[in-house]
Write a structure and sequence with these properties.
- The protein has 14 helices and seven strands.
- The protein folds into two domains: 74 residues, Helix Hairpins (Orthogonal Bundle), CATH 1.10.287; 226 residues, Aspartate Aminotransferase, domain 2.
- Helix 3 packs across helix 5, helix 7 packs parallel to helix 8 and helix 11 crosses helix 12.
- It has a seven-stranded mixed sheet, with helices on both faces.
- The chain is of the alpha/beta class.
- Pathway: Photosynthesis; C4 acid pathway; Amino-acid degradation; L-alanine degradation via transaminase pathway; pyruvate from L-alanine: step 1/1.
- One of its GO terms (biological process) is photorespiration.
- Its cofactor is pyridoxal 5'-phosphate.
- InterPro entries: ALAT1/2-like, Aminotransferase_I/II_large, PyrdxlP-dep_Trfase, PyrdxlP-dep_Trfase_major.
Length: 351
Amino acid sequence: MPPKPLDYESINENVKKAQYAVRGELYLRASELQKEGKKIIFTNVGNPHALGQKPLSFPRQVVALCQAPFLLDDPNVGLLFPTDAIARAKHYLSLTSGGLGAYSDSRGIPGIRKEVADFIHRRDAYPSDPELIYLTDGASKGVMQILNTIIGGLGDGILVPVPQYPLYSATIALLGGSLVPYYLEETENWGLNTNELRRSVSQARYNGINVKAMVIINPGNPTGQCLSEANLRDVLRFCYEENLVLLGDEVYQQNIYQDERPFISAKKLILYISTHKKVLMDLGSPLSKEVQLISFHTVSKGYWGECGQRGGYFEMTNIPPEVCLDFILHLLSFKLRFLAMFRMHKNWSTL
């Protein structure tokens, strides 16, 4: 008798290949030991609240009021919730039609996207367009959606740093693409070497792989470093020369535990280049208008550690409007939902 559709022999081969260490064999084995009475500290899953981190009170208060808006009508609401949380909840509810139980624009509520754009503007000192911001239930979902848009099959490759966060290797395998590794230099504070990038791309192309995108994880995960401005310039030049989409995983941008090297967003450097002619000429190419960038951020990681409260975004830079609206928006529309994306700890300006 042939195997059933969900027997091991019948399931999608890409699912078998998509090993995700964060929830894979190590985690499952630890869970087994925990059931046997062993005390296990799950340090591999980036789960701060499970290790005792206390949630920030303000966003939890706002979410509680938005989830149960009838509390706002209680005459004693001011005894349970601070006035700023009440005001913020009313503000967010005013942006919706139907509250948190209703579908929204596939990109997320316009008013929330405007607040995210304001945060990016303050961070980078350059404007951000809310129409090019897409809210997602965590950065991981955004990464998966973009990779799904880029990868068409085994012949499509994605440059990924090693060490890497296994979301990338697992998702690329699940989508049937090819992971093209490039190795960070531990002796150089886990920096990038363009010679290593070129070696990796050349090897992949020799093997018949069409390398289409490059991932940078900045600040690094699990390495913890911030890429230098020189490294970022090298990356932008490399992506321009090799015609690659740059995927900027920037979810730990508030977790900087050293003073010698600040976080610089890839978008900020692109816009800085575009407004400083000498820098643009030094780089020798019109890359500020040509390099395609998609950057990711989240409230599910970073110092919030809200792993179970999913919220994030990705922002598009130099992506053609027809791709943003006709294809990526179309893909997101398959999963209509409301995403409560709020400015954490009073507002995004505190980031």
